[in-house]
Amino acid sequence: MAIKAGQIDKGTALLIKGQPYVVTDREFVNPGKGSAFVRIKMKSPTTGQTLSDTIKTQETVDDINVSDRDCQYLYQDGELFHFQTTDTYDEVTVPMVTFPDYQFLMKEGETYRCTFWEESLLDIQIPSKVIYTVAEAEEAIKGDTVTGTTKNAVTDTGLKVRVPIFIKAGEKIRVNTETKEYLERVND
Q1: Which of 3, 14, 34, 96 has the highest local Cβ count within 10 Å?
Q2: At 75, is the secondary structure helix, strand, or coil?
Q3: Per-residue pLDDT tens for 4-52?
Q4: What is the DSSP letter of 102?
Q5: Is the dihedral of CA 157, 163, 169, 175 positive or negative?
């Protein structure tokens, strides 16, 4: 199938030189002179390779049909993420290098929406805000009351986050998964 470059959005799956790529960033540019174009960045979920391209909006590119399925995250073994589809209970593995930032964002046992092309897992959709439990937090220095003072903390998944000095181990915090920044303390 072919679509015009102007129809490409973030998350669109394209077939480039026989390999699937997912668009990670898209910028529409309409210069004063000349044709409008789209500047895109893509990532191959199978190899982890990234590409950048500039395409005139009227040119066509090959897109691929993908399907979304719910998958339960089981565990990671240092090389692979292991999932199980919730509809057929098939086990799906994907190399960790394909999604290097996700190692500390996903929680075992949680269900994530995953995008597939044929049998290849192309994308894992992680919510933009997730609640984690603080596993470790530095001790606050007595008398350090400057507004906005932060300290290092590690969540139960291993994610390192800067948190306000009043956060202690065992507390729950909400984190922006895109920026990996602390948002707020969560009370049960």
Answers
A1: 14
A2: strand
A3: 888 888 888 888 888 888 888 899 988 888 888 999 999 887 777 888 9
A4: G
A5: negative
| pLDDT tens digits, 52-72 | 999 888 888 888 888 889 999
- Could you tell me the domains of the chain? 2-62 (2.30.30.30), 67-125 (2.40.50.140), 129-186 (2.40.50.140)
User: Following CA atoms 100, 102, 105, 106 in sequence, which dihedral angle do they give, to the nearest 10 degrees?
Assistant: -140
Closest CA to 176 of 134, 125, 131, 112: 131
Give pairs for 55-60: CB < 8 Å, separation 24+.
55/5, 55/8, 56/5, 57/4, 57/5, 57/6, 57/28, 58/4, 58/5, 58/6, 59/4, 59/5, 60/2, 60/3, 60/4, 60/5
Q: Name the DSSP letter for residue 106.
A: -
What SS3 state is found at 92?
strand
Q: How far is CA 159 from the centre of its chain?
A: 14
Whole-structure pTM value? 0.75
Beta bridge partners of 73: 83
In whole angstroms, give the CA distance from residue 47 to residue 10.
Answer: 19
